[in-house]
Amino acid sequence: MSDTKAGARTTPVLGGNQKLVVAIAVLASFVSFLDGTIVNVALPKMIGELGGGLTAQQWIVDSYLVTLGAFILVAGSVSDLYGRILVMRIGLILFGVASVAVGAAPTVEFLIGARAVQGIAGALLVPSSLALITSNIRGAAQGRAIGIWTGMTSVAMIVGPVIGGLFVDLLNVGTVSGWRFAFFINVIPIAVVLWLLVRLGQRDVRKPGVRIDYLGSILCTVGLAGVVFALIEQQSLGWGNPAIWGSMTIGVLSFAGFLVREKYAKDPVMPLGLFRARNFWTGNVATAFIYGALALSSFAIGVYLQEGPKLPATLAGVASLPSTIIMILFSSRVGSWSGRFGPRLFMTIGPITCGIGVVTMLLVQHDFNYWWQMLPGIILFGVGLTLTVSPLTSAILGAIEPERSGIASAVNNAVSRVAGLIMTALLGLITGER
C-alpha cells in the first residue's frame, strides 16, 4: 500500500461542501456552548452591579440550563418536522435577540428571564447542527467531522471564561460594564452563520408524519424546573418549607410522568427505544458524569479564582486555557483514531485521566500558586476530555440509524446539559453557602 493511501485511511479528507457543513455546525453550536461558560467569570461583576448572592448566581446559570435541557429534546422533533436549516435559522435569530436582552438587563430578575430565553434558542441550535453533519457526511469522514465538532464545541465551554474575563476586565465603556459586551458580541458569529447558510444553498428535508409531543415537553420542563428550584432555594428556605418539598415533589412526579408518557406516546420527545442500543445508553451515562464534572469544575474554578486568590476575571479565564489548546490541537486526530480503532479504549482512558486531573486540583492551598497547584490538574483534565469527547459522541450517534440522528443528538445533548444543571444546583448544598 502506498503512503498516500495509508495517509488517506488514517486522516479522512473532507470535501469543500462538507467543510462548509462542518463550519456551519461548529459556529451555530459554538455560540450556545460559549455563552454557557462565559457567564462563569462574569458572575461576580453581574451580582456586584445588579445585586444577589450565590442563589442569584446559580439561577443565572441554571435558568439557561433548565430551558436548554428541557427544550433540546423537543427541538430534535421540531427539526425533523420543519427542517434542520429552518430551525437553525430561527434559533440563531432568537439567540441573538436574547443575548442583546441579557447584555441590556436592568435587573437580575430580567437577566435570569433573558437567560432562560437564550436556553430555548440554544436548544434549537445544538441538535440541528449536529444532525446537519450526520445527514451530509458518511463513513470515516463522519468520524473526523464529529471529532472537529465535539472538539470545537468543547473548546467553547473552556475558552468561554477566557473571553468573558477579557470583556469583564478590559471593555468597560463609560457606565457600561464589560460583562454586558460579552453578550452583545454574539451578534457577530450569528450573522456569519446566517450568511454561511445562504452560501450552502441546501434545501430542507422534512420527515413526513412527525408530530410534536407537547405534553411530554411540558412534563419534562416542569420536572426539571421543580427539582432545580428545590435544590437551589433550599439553602435559604430550608427543606421543611412547603415551597421546597412541594416543588421537589411536583418535579419528581412530573419527570416520572414524562417517562411514562414517552413510553406510550406515538411521537415521543425522547424515544425510550433509543436506550435499547447498548452504546447509546452506556454512552449517555458516561456523558452525564463527564459533563456534570465539567460544568461543576468550570463554575467552581471561575468563581473561586476571583473570590479566593482575588484574581482578575481575565486571569481566572486564562487559567483553563491549557485545556483549550490541547483540545484544539488533538480533538480531530482523536476523532480519526476513534474511527479506526473504536471508541472503547479512549472512553476508558479519558475519564480516568479527567478524574486524576480533578483530584490533582485539590492541592490548592491558602498560599495560592497556580503553576504547581492548578496547572497540572488542568492539563490532565484537558487531555482526558480530548480523549473522551469525540469518541463518546461518535459511539453514541453511531449506535443509532442516521434518520434518527437528530433526536439521538438531542437526547445526548440534553443529558449533558441536565447533568451540568443538577451539579450547579447542588453547589450550594455541597459548600453550605448562600
TrEMBL record:
It is a multi-pass membrane protein. The keyword DNA-binding does not apply. This is MFS transporter. The chain crosses the membrane at residues 20-43, 63-83, 90-108, 114-134, 146-167, 179-200, 212-232, 244-260, 281-305, 311-332, 344-364, 370-398, 410-430. It comes from Pseudolysinimonas kribbensis. PROSITE patterns: MFS. Keywords: Membrane, Transmembrane, Transmembrane helix. The keyword Membrane applies. Residues 21-434 form the Major facilitator superfamily (MFS) profile domain. It holds the Pfam family MFS_1. It is found in: Cell membrane.
